[in-house]
Design brief:
By secondary structure, the protein is α/β, with parallel strands linked by helices. The protein contains 15 helices and 14 strands. The longest helix is centred in the first third of the chain and has 26 residues. It is globular, with a radius of gyration of 24 Å.
Length: 381
């Protein structure tokens, strides 16, 4: 036997063993799940989860370890590390669904309207759970003699110049609710600032964080936006809150779904167990938010940097729930009707009723699995 053959016979088993070991290691390596949020308190459930997950371990079987606070966490299931959670701040409006479609994030927290618009365009995105409702406000300059919606309507109708109304992005939930109310009141509006023949100029300030700045600098007369920005504006004396948008006529947006959880379809296919585990924790976190305002305020202030006074004013204006029940489906039906009326749906979802559109835009199976798992874990606790 040649020296070469003896060498191969001696080392080939070791090479194969090492090779198999590497492949086995790859197979058992923890999954990375990238979570995108917009850094406001409508996404409070995520912050409460990551601040309190260890308290839930006994009833969920899941725990979280901080690697880099507010950036990277390790997720453990029954004591075994199963995932690394990367926390990524993304922009609001269409930026979150775009980040999902591009694979920048796997799961995103954001507005239902931008998510539906992305699904309509054929983006590889699915709505996988409700998250939040209400919490959108109408704000005007502090010095304006306007205290109610009717005051504002009357002022707009007699004014010789258009009222300048700010919003944070073209598909923002608040913008669409306001446009529905303006249409009901017979008030014309336009995004073209050169038009003097309309009652309202709609001005995109390009970000929720810029709403109060634009108001304080006199670039706009008022704005529609989600808390905590209105509460911040009120605290600083920049603006005053005139109304919750859910109270605007014609009244069809009462308790309207605002934010949801959405996912990249490839992530749903490849990271099923981790997505379910995350939803289990979010279900438990919502119980904390709804039962312990102090805990919600602590997490919101820590993650967002807002004051305690702001969050005590802001959080109670919102509804936090992952319940995809009949009431939620009914409210989502209103969204589809409104978006169709406003021409916001032009492709796959155009003209569909909510039940038909759900087959295209939703995948609520992960939420159902999460609810079943939480019930099982609690039964064995």
């Amino acid at each position: 036997m040649s020296t070469y053959v003896r060498f191969v016979n001696a080392f080939l088993p070791l090479v194969l063993l090492l090779g198999c070991g590497e492949r086995d290691a790859d197979r058992t390596a923890p999954t990375t799940l990238k979570l995108g949020h917009v850094s406001h308190d409508h996404h409070l459930a995520l912050y409460v989860v990551l601040d309190n997950a260890d308290e839930y371990a006994g009833e969920t079987g899941l725990s979280v370890v901080v690697v880099r606070d507010r950036e990277l966490y390790e997720l453990f299931d029954a004591g075994r590390k199963v995932a690394e959670l990367q926390i990524i701040k993304v922009g609001g409006g269409a930026k979150m669904p775009t980040a999902l479609a591009q694979g920048v994030i796997d799961i995103g927290l954001g507005g239902v309207a931008p998510v539906l618009a992305a699904c309509d365009r054929g983006a590889p995105v699915k709505l996988i759970a409700p998250l939040h409702s209400k919490g959108d406000m109408l704000v005007v300059r502090s010095d304006l003699p306007v205290d109610t919606w009717q005051d504002l309507v009357d002022r707009i109708k007699i004014s010789e110049v258009p009222f300048r109304m700010g919003y944070k992005s073209p598909m923002a939930v608040a913008k669409l609710v306001l446009e529905d109310a303006l249409r009901h009141e017979g008030i014309s509006h336009s995004g073209d600032p050169s038009r003097a023949d309309v009652g309202v100029h709609m001005i995109n300030v390009k970000g929720g964080g810029k709403l109060n700045t634009a108001l304080s600098e006199g670039l706009i007369d008022g704005y529609v936006g989600n808390n905590p920005f209105p509460a911040i504006g009120a605290e600083k004396g920049i603006g005053k809150i005139v109304s919750s948008l859910e109270d605007l006529p014609p009244g069809r947006f009462g308790d309207h779904p605002c934010c949801c959880l959405a996912a990249n379809t490839q992530a749903l296919a490849g990271k099923k167990e981790i997505v379910v585990a995350l939803l289990v924790l979010l279900l438990r976190a919502n119980e904390t938010i709804n039962g312990d305002l102090d805990a919600g305020v602590r997490s919101a202030c820590r993650w967002i940097g807002t004051s305690e006074d702001v969050e005590r004013a802001s959080i109670p204006t919102s509804g936090y729930s992952l319940e995809a029940d009949a009431a939620w489906h009914g409210c989502m039906s209103v969204w589809f009707d409104a978006m169709n009326d406003l021409g916001a749906l032009q492709n796959r979802l155009k003209g569909l009723q909510e039940e038909e559109a759900a087959a295209v835009a939703y995948d609520l199976s992960f939420l159902e699995q999460a609810r079943e798992r939480l019930e099982r874990e609690r039964a064995h606790d």
